[in-house]
């Protein structure tokens, strides 16, 4: 068994047909079928169920696919590491970012590209669960996210480089405010207002911190909507349905129409942000330098 056979196996597993896999690999069907049979004979197990129109993996095949993907990724990392030592900095850096952190990336990427023009970026947006899965599968090297990172744990865990925290602001429909509008508001001023919060089935920390802050100021927030994304909560804010407490950068990057963001005078509620990567795993030189750009204050 070698890497070539594993690549053949993965192609068939993904395509569900030897014919399509052979076309994708630019080879004839009989040699590909022969390689798959040889692999099964060597391992002494059937890797595919061939009883239906589409070839599906057996339990042994599923296990081999998981291991094969890991081996091929690791081999690619070795090749990248050696090339970087010989050729200098180039290639693609894959980064994941939660929606509320995307606004932190443009100035960093612009300055980084000025210093390292050979690097291009692939950026994936998603929630903690999606990005945790992409990180564990090595589809992204780094993730920029609100902390704590509420993704399913991976075996090796995560390393975190914390970024400066930022305060929350109260985002309020303009027609609720007096004229002229104040520059700041107190938590008690929001006690009788309907609240909108960011919360999904898995990412609950921001929602729970806001509820705790309201209770600390002596009231239970009347939450009329728990929203799964910044886009949803912005739409509801623009419609004048409630008030939301959001990190300053979220508000600054996409202020909802018809609202005002006010400083909260009597609250120290803040949001922590971090760059995450898999503990104990190889990081490309470009990823390490990108993390260093935050340490050194570039951007």
Characterization of the model:
With 299 residues, this protein is an alpha/beta fold. The protein has three domains: 3-70, Arc Repressor Mutant, subunit A, CATH 1.10.10; 82-163 and 273-295, D-Maltodextrin-Binding Protein, domain 2 (3-Layer(aba) Sandwich), CATH 3.40.190; 165-269, D-Maltodextrin-Binding Protein, domain 2 (3-Layer(aba) Sandwich). Helices cover 41% and strands 24% of the residues. It is built from ten helices and twelve strands. The chain has helices at residues 3-15, 18-25, 29-43, 59-87, 105-115, 128-136, 205-216, 230-238, 248-253, 285-295, and strands spanning 48-49, 56-57, 91-97, 119-125, 142-146, 158-173, 184-185, 194-198, 222-227, 244-247, 259-264, 270-278. Strands 3, 4, 5, 6, 7, 10, 11 and 12 form an eight-stranded mixed β-sheet that branches. A two-stranded antiparallel sheet has the order 1-2. β8, α7 and β9 form a beta-alpha-beta unit. α1 (3-15) crosses α2 (18-25) and α1 crosses α4 (59-87). The longest helix is centred in the first third of the chain and has 29 residues, at 59-87.
């Amino acid at each position: 068994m070698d890497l070539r056979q594993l690549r053949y196996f993965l192609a068939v597993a993904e395509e569900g047909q030897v014919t399509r896999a052979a076309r994708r690999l630019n080879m004839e069907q009989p040699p590909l079928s022969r390689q798959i049979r040889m692999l099964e004979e060597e391992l002494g197990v059937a890797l595919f169920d061939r009883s239906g129109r589409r070839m599906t993996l057996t339990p042994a095949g599923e296990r081999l696919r998981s291991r094969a993907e890991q081996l091929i990724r690791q081999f690619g990392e070795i090749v990248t590491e050696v090339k970087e030592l010989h050729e200098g900095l180039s290639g693609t850096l894959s980064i994941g970012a939660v929606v509320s952190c995307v606004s932190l990336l443009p100035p960093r990427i612009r300055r980084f590209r000025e210093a390292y023009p050979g690097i291009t970026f692939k950026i994936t947006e998603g929630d903690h669960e999606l990005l945790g899965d992409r990180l564990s599968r090595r589809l992204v090297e780094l993730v920029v996210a609100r902390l704590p990172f509420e993704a399913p744990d991976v075996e090796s865990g995560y390393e975190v480089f914390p970024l400066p925290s930022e305060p929350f602001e109260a985002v309020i429909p303009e027609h609720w405010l007096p004229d002229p509008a104040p520059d700041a508001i107190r938590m008690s001023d929001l006690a009788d207002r309907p609240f909108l919060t960011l919360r999904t089935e898995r990412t609950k920390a921001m929602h729970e911190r806001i509820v705790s802050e309201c209770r600390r100021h002596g009231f239970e927030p009347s939450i009329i909507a728990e929203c799964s994304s910044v886009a949803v909560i912005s739409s509801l804010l623009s419609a004048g349905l409630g008030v939301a407490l959001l990190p300053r950068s979220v508000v600054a990057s996409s202020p909802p129409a018809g609202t005002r963001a006010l400083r909260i005078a009597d609250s120290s509620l803040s949001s922590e942000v971090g760059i995450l990567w898999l503990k104990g795993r190889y990081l490309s030189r470009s990823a390490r330098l990108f993390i260093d750009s935050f340490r050194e204050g570039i951007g």
